[in-house]
Automatic annotation (TrEMBL):
InterPro entries, per database record: Carb_Esterase_6, SASA, SGNH_hydro_sf
Domain Sialate O-acetylesterase: 30-272
Name by which UniProt lists this protein: Sialate O-acetylesterase domain-containing protein
Signal peptide start and end residues: 1-24
Species whose genome carries this gene: Urochloa decumbens
Keywords, alphabetical: Hydrolase, Signal
Molecular function, one GO term: hydrolase activity
Gene3D superfamilies the UniProt entry points to: SGNH hydrolase
Amino acid sequence: MATAPAPPLLLLLVLAFLGAGAAGWQTKTVVFLLAGQSNMGGRGGATSGRGTSWDGVVPPECRPSPRILRLSPELRWEEAREPLHAGIDAGNVVGIGPGMPFAHAVLRSRRLPAHAAVGLVPCAQGATAIAAWSRGTHLYRRMLARARAALAQCPSPSPTPKGECHLAALLWYQGEADTISRRDADLYTARMEALVRDVRHDLNMPNLLVIQVGLATGQGKFVDLVRDAQKRVNLPNVKYVDAKGLPVANDYTHLTTPAQVKLGNMLASSYLATL
């Protein structure tokens, strides 16, 4: 029986080169911190009645994907599922937030490499004023610890064992609690600028992108003052996305599920515009 001819030397060299490249190829995970208070934590579908449960409705824009990962409360990467802030936004009923629709929109844009994943690091805590996020507080330390753990345990959504993580942005939606006191509203700009500077310094990322969401609602009467303060933040690479006008639930405070999907898309557009 005739034997098959040996492959040409050039073909062998090409196959060896490709094999070496595959072994060293790195899968990229683009990581985003999600921080702030309840509207970042997500209350879509969790505001009716006494607020004791989430309705469980997951729109298509929020469904799981093997290319969307979440850092769990135990600091492990896992496939992201709603509610994204389960186990993080302690003591609150959580539902749909902007994180999952944001991740889907970023992947849908095809601006990332073909095999890239989006890693979401939920950090939000409901009913917290910005002072509760200043350097040295529990929430600040937790956010930085989760950011560092996310980068140290870089996941790979493909069969290749190696991964490369990049912290791309902090998505920040907070300020409703600062509308109660005139003093807190007046201090908001300075406190937000200090927070951005501290996070960038402590993560050694002086140009970290920050996208803040302009308030749609508030817990007090100084909503417009806080919104104006948000717009006055004057630091490089800080973007502003306005939630005003998005549908609000019957509690007059929290965005509905469709509003959160819309906000996620708006945040994605702001991030993609920087690429």
